[in-house]
Amino acid sequence: MVTKRGVAIAGARVAGGLVLVGAIAAVIVAAVLVPIPTIVATAATVAVAPAPGAEYRVCPGPILSNSQSSAQPGQVTSAVGNATIASGLREAAGGAPAGAVTRKSLAAPGNSSAATGNSPQLLEAGGAPNGALLAASQSSTAGAPDLRGFAATACGEATAESWLVGGATTVGRTSLIMLSNPTAVAANVRLTIYAENGMIDAPGASAILVPALSQTVVSLAGFAPNVSSPVVHVQAAGGVVLASVQQAIIRGLETGGVELVGPSAAPSATPVMTGVTITGTSAIAERLPTDGNGDMQAALRVFVPGTDDASLTVTATSEQVGAESVSFTITAAAGRVSESPLRDLPDGTYTLSVSSSVPVVTAARTSVIEAGALDFGWYQSALAQSNDFLAPIAAGPNPRLHLSNQGSSPVTVVLTPTSGAKVTVQVPAQGSVGVVVAGATTYAAAATGVLVASVGYSGGGQLSAYSLTRPNPLEAPIVIYP
Amino acid sequence: MRARVTAVLIASNGADFLPRTLAALEAQTRQPDTLIVVDTASTDSSAALLAGIRPTHFVSATGKMSFGTAVTHALGVIPPPESNDQWLWLLAHDTAPEPGALAAMLATVEVSPSVAVAGPKQMDWDSPGYVREFGETITEFGATFPLAETELDQAQYDRLSDILALGAAGMLVRHTVFNELHGFDPALPTADNGLDFSIRARLAGHRVVGVPAARVASAGDGLAGPGWSQKGRARRRRQADGRAAQLHRRLVYAPAFAVVFHWLSLVPLAVVRSLGQLVRKQPGAITGEFSAAFRTAFDSRIREARGNLRRTRRVGWRAITPLRIAGDEVRRRRSLQREIALARVRGEPDRIQFIASGGVTTTLTAAIVGLIVFIPLFGAKAVTGGSLLPLSPSAAELWGNVGFGWRDIGLGFVGAADPFAAVLAVLGSLTFWSPSTAIVALYLGALPLAALAAWFLAARLTDKPWLRTVAAALWVLAPPFLGALDAGALGAIIAHLVLPWLVLAGLAARKSWSASAMAAILFAVTVAAAPSLWPALLILWLVSSATSGRSIARVIGIPIPALVMVAPLAWQQFRAGNLLALFADPGAPAPRGNVGLIDLLSGIPAAGQAGWASIAASVGLEPSVLRLVLLVVVVPLAALAILALFLPGPSSTRAVFGGVIALVGLLTALGATHLALTSVGNSAVFVWAGSGLSLYWLGLTGAAVIGLHTLKRGATAPGFVSVLVVAVVAIPLLAAPLIGGWSVKPGTGALLPALVTAEAAASPRVGTLVITPQTDGGLLARVVSGTGATLDDQSTQAQTGGVTESTAALASLVANLASPSGSESSVQLSGLGIKFVLLSPSLAGAASLESETAGLRSASALDGNAALTKIGNTFAGTLWEITGTPGTASLPVAQPTNVATPAGVIILTVQGIVFLLMLLLALPAGRLQPASARVMNPILQVSRAGFPAGGTLEEEPANAAPAEDKPEPEPEPEPEPEPEEEPKPEPGPAAEVEDEDYDPDAETILRVPPAVGTTETPNSGGENRGH
What we know:
The complex is a heterodimer of chains A (about 475) and B (about 1050). Chain A has helices spanning about 5-35, 220-225, 280-285; strands at about 40, 45-50, 55-60, 65, 80, 85-90, 100-105, 120-125, 135-145, 145-155, 160-165, 175-180, 185-195, 200, 210, 215-220, 230-240, 240-250, 255-260, 270-280, 300-305, 310-320, 325-330, 335-340, 350-355, 360-370, 375-380, 390-395, 400-405, 410-415, 425, 430-435, 440-445, 450-460, 460-465, 480. Chain A has about 475 residues and is mainly β. The longest helix of chain A has 30 residues, at about 5-35. Chain A is elongated, with a radius of gyration of 30 Å. The mean pLDDT of chain A is about 85. With about 1050 residues, chain B is of the alpha+beta class. Chains A and B meet through α1, β1 and β36 of A and α26, α27, β16, β20 and α32 of B. β36 (about 480) of chain A pairs parallel with β20 of chain B, so a sheet runs across the interface.
């Protein structure tokens, strides 16, 4: 018997069930169709710009003589000639470099002459305000029977990672790697050496201890004997180092010059070398066919890190007004060092602009024969300077400041020396200018655009150059999640 | 000289009883000589009825007055007594004497001149075969003690004569004595009025006798005495009045020097007795205790009453000592009552049958599975990973992290702890010698505990053993539970284990204070462990309160402990304008992949599809397809649950409740997936959806079990299939601890390198800065003290708070430390108390080019910092020690502790008191619990047994509605007649189903004591009198 009550209960039950199932279905449909706002609480963050450290520069010190080929860091070397340093500090924007720089000698345990003060130097601008500019460079002349020539290099900042493009360890070529650690912490340096046949297995090069505030010198031949075109990747842990390579050449009994090579710019698809001075091409051409003279030829050394081969277009732009620029294309195998001769370039000063398919590290080398003296120079690739920079000019023969404008509009630059008259220079778009400057002084440059700059010396059978490195950027602000 | 009897009949709205009373009066074999009737401002037809019998005097009082006052009033209309042979017979409107009552009493008093007070045997109004009351006495401490209980009159009291006291109703008093004693004490309107009068009569040198041959039917309407109504309010009022009367008598009877002490003890005693009332599950009596104490303390009538006693007392107290009841006799009588009550209650068969119906087997099976699955945990001291961290090394530290004080997280701050800290403190105290072991033990016991909880909840829904096992299996293998175990979401694990008990206690709360308090405690535990359940549980609580009718008092208070626990934190978060952060999961935040709606419907709380994602990836199945495939886990359950909603049966209401639980659970989970309140570095941490899914799963499982139960035949296959699919889906997560891929790591619980741990042994507050590179190139910086962060140190307030002054300063130091910088940050870090810097690797799967760069930059800067000495690479990352600074760096001491500030003390005290009271109320009272008057009342028992389904039963509301008289102990069976118990059930299949419906709450027929013959009992429907 179906009672009214039973019907009512069943009805209520069905209705209740339907309402509930409907509600659940509605929730599901709504969750699909209606965009529900998502509330995400923002994480507590603080972006902090680290306090800038005090400005400093490290000068690698005098030219060293080392007859033995030893990779031992404890080897005994001795200085050949003194290194003279030109440094400038500009504390306030505008005006001439006028600040006082303090110098400190770095310990050089392998250098028997270091005790006499002829040692690597640490230049500090203690107490200089933020935004102060500090720059220095050094030059030295060697006149020993087996080591003769002129070498100038920029005093740079120590870094955790750098690329040395230069040197050779074939017969008669000596390459010393100078690792200068200006920090208060010992640096553990790893050298990765690449050559024309790829990476060279050098077990001892992976952990070179550079004590705090000192310089360690190792001979590249100890790790990589008999390579003609090495490129060294320097990585420091702990403290940081300024790496330089000192290359000396002796061909038979004839000295072939000496050069201090600073670090090239980090791998880049568009490295630029400016102030590449090609001189005495005919004299060199005469001697080139002789065995062992191959490295007299001006050349571009390229290393391709990574695994992709590089295709490079090199454009040589002369400083001579009205000269056509010359372009040529080369390919470079990945993981190997290749050297391309810079043939067919008439005497002159050039800017080499490279455009590569993958980032590469580069440097150029030229030689000079003049008055029976031979010398050579390395031109490191460099990054463009900011608008305000200092150009320290170490003493040397016929110093010239080379400025290259990679931009598409002319740049005017005003050069103010420590003492003397201002010079105003116009650098055309895509052009280069060489400015005759005085040695042993520092110029403050104020440009209307960015320029790649280097300093070159050439004269009396002496040749050297160094590019002006851009100061390490201030540490980028970092986001902290406290 | 022949005795003259003046009958005094007092009526107060007694029209229901008066006709019988008046008829009985007229039927007396010995008529009173004078009849005075007093109408105390009745609003019904009492006055007319009284006038109808033509009394000698009709006194109409203008206002309400007590029985005693009315009698005194009435005596004003007759001249004072001339001799000792004049008697007063005191009657109330509900006092119907049997015809020979007066004659019998007079026969007794006439032969005994020393007797001043005589009283009849008071019989039940409706069942005249039962004695209701016959004489009273007091214990050694002065408490009232009735000589007779409600029991069948088998002449067992008929040899009683000299007694200490009598009830006022039907009392025969010598008029001279009544006047001499100044009548009843006006301070005792109902309770103890007759007792006090009788004692004073005794002390004045008279005798008080009971006359068993005189029988008066009494309805206990509450006029002449305290009344017998079992309605909750009347009962509570009677308790309060009784207590007040006892205290009043105590102050009146006490020797003068003791009065002050008694007065001073009033309120302290009320406090102590209130705690006792909680233990006895009588929280309703607490108000009465205090009102009685205060009423008595400020009662001006005590002096008057003492004077009255002093003037009339002729013999010493020693004279009545033999009439008091001895202490051991009191104990004997009480234990007898308990035995009777237990014997009656035990008539109820055990419906649960934990052992016989497979509860033990199910739990043991789950335990074995759990032990196998968690084999890697054997011997582990702690589990870490996911949201898990070790606990503090001592129970004292755990308890120190409860309440309001120093929160030792990062650089620390003063604030309120998460309520979860209290849960951890309790949990960790279980293994006080090594608190972290408690979490290992919880993992090992998680599966059997879940099985146990689900089994007991299912036992309430079904009597079929295999269905209970199905429910337990579904609950153990629930994807949100296994997901929480996999992710180390301790709060969600605890919530999953507690939820069935909470529902169980919540269902029972309507009928039992004990269950109500238990539900309140479990509610607090659940929302402390899984704050995301706050809204859902509050909704369920509201629904429950709205439908609980008269038992709302036991439901309404359930969230109180939880609110008390969360209040300090809520206040601080409210002040910070971040109230939403209360929903943040306690414990260590751990970023996990968020999930979508389909995953939620499948009950899967976190990315990885319950471990299937990697399997699917290896066979090339699309994640979107996998999601749909996994939805199969819920299909059988949902189908059964929906079926349960529509199938007829008494449990369909419960199925609807299950559906509502599932709905709010799903909504909670859906909300959780849209709410990220905390973050780890640059990774947002969403609220753990698994807690809501546990609720969703609970509702689904419950409804499905009801559906299976209702299906009866053919339920085996669907039940088996639903368990099978859930079990298959659970395989990857169950296998994860054994074959790898588990995010929880058993071990020693060491979070920091051994060097730091060793240093912490010497200086426990040594600080370590932990830097972790983030995917956006930022750095996460955390300061931990000693051996590392602990779970009980965690604070959602710290995790959800923004940047403060101290954290900004720390950030600046870290940034400079992680960069070659001119800032001497290492010195300042050392000043903060940091001795070690740990560069921790990014989480697996959370590494990017940016994080690598940030890591290299930090490592290089730390290497290049002369003030740091590199220790080396450890399991936790690369470690540096700050050595360039003098002294030993140590973080500031964790001050203030939770009892060091007034706020902290107040918070701990209030929370402690609330939980103590709840625990007292929740504890099984055992022998202390008073036997319910209903259990003890043989009249009700007999009427119930003999006449189970009178017509009135149909008027009862539908199944869950409780019967009238609420407050009674849990074991008492509750008559809950189902609507289906109509005399003529519907024919057909529906009726067949209904016949077998299972409801443990259904009416239970008690065995009737053999002494009581059912035939003697009229069909009175006694329990429905309250209607």
